[in-house]
Amino acid sequence: MLGNIGTYTYTIDAYLTDFRGKATLPMIGGFMLQAATRHAEERGFGYSCMVSKQRVWVLTRMNIQLSGYPDNDTQIKLHTWVSDVNKLFTERCFAFEDQNGNYFGYARSLWASIDIQTRRATNVLELEGMTDFISDKECPIDSAGKIVPAKDSELADSFIVKYSDIDINKHLNSMKYIEHFVDIFPLELYQKKEIKGFEINYITEGKYASELSIFKKEISDNIYSLDMRHDDKAICVARVTWK
Questions:
Q1: Mind listing the pLDDT tens digit for each residue in 18-56?
Q2: For a tag on the chain, would you pick the N or C end, based on fewer CB atoms within 10 A?
Q3: Domains along the chain?
Q4: Kind plus residue range of the DSSP H or E element containing 29
């Protein structure tokens, strides 16, 4: 019988690392989505089960806190578990372990279940057996909270959503939001510091061929507020902490 906690191993491949030869934040985020998908599918509340009920999971918030980034050509273990289930959301946690057995970060994420046709929220508690997999394993960071866009932010970049940006629903892929956000910072900053904290709220979907703009403001030392807009309305908000 499967336990409540899933553990999955990933390799930091050279073609996905940055100029420092280290994993990137979008790479780690991608591993998180893969692990979440496998964990849910193996326990009966994954993609195939959801589609049979005319539902899909939607990632709404994440809080990722890292003490470092693994090197090229090393392996990491990603542990994931469900920490809470209620009518509107389920919370999923992650722990990142390097190949020497040291933990280099944790993450919390919030997911909603929506109807495929209406795109409206459905009752997560209706998913039979899901609450059986709730774990009380500790995740020593805060839950992913609401982020309010900063006032008087400045335009940092704009782009058109293209083929390589979209997912199966023809909407901007969850990790592509992160890629576009981290790309607005200059290389010189990455040469001196690292992103240690990344929080994100997904508000609405970025659609294929739409023009999106990214606004940035440093709200305190080494902490930036970012928001992505379509027609001057925020579709995604993030907060980035550098150290």
A1: 999 999 999 999 999 999 999 999 999 999 999 999 999
A2: N
A3: 5-133 (3.10.129.10), 154-242 (3.10.129.10)
A4: helix 25-42
